[in-house]
Here is the input.
Amino acid sequence: MDNNAIFWDKNFNQDKVRRILNDEKGPKFIGVAATLLSRCNKPKEVFASYLNKAAFCNNWRRIKKQMRKNKWSDARIIFWDEVYKVTLQDIDKKTLKTSKKRDIVIDPEMKAIGDKIRGFRKKLGWIQAELAKRSKLSQQTISFVEKGYTNVSVKTLKRITDTLGLRFVIEFPESNTASNQTYSA
Here is the structure.
């Protein structure tokens, strides 16, 4: 694999890249791994020349997040997500670090808004990926909003409702108490 073709805009030689990718805890690991996976679609070469499979699996969520942050192609992220699923099946589970269980809190108000968004999306015949593409958000964001997993920002909610042709309204009653606020999508 040609290191210069992948890291053409970085001042990295192959030894430096390998040193960075051999240190999962290092500050540059996620960024370099995200760049590597964003620019290469040859898993055999990536795992043979640069990245340990266990390190890849242990850090895939963080790498994927960085790839999204860098606005890399969704197709490339989907490709590596499939590689992750296959690699995870083939790898010795003892080499993987155990992930922390995340307590997912679903706010009933956010869930109600998410249900409305899902309903309107389905009426249009769109899958989540279509809404994500049209609203310039990730499919994961759409999924989290629809499930009520996240306290979505007003800006994100407006983006989604505008894309669906809905009106986002926040009404504050005259008493202006938080318990009397009405949110609708």
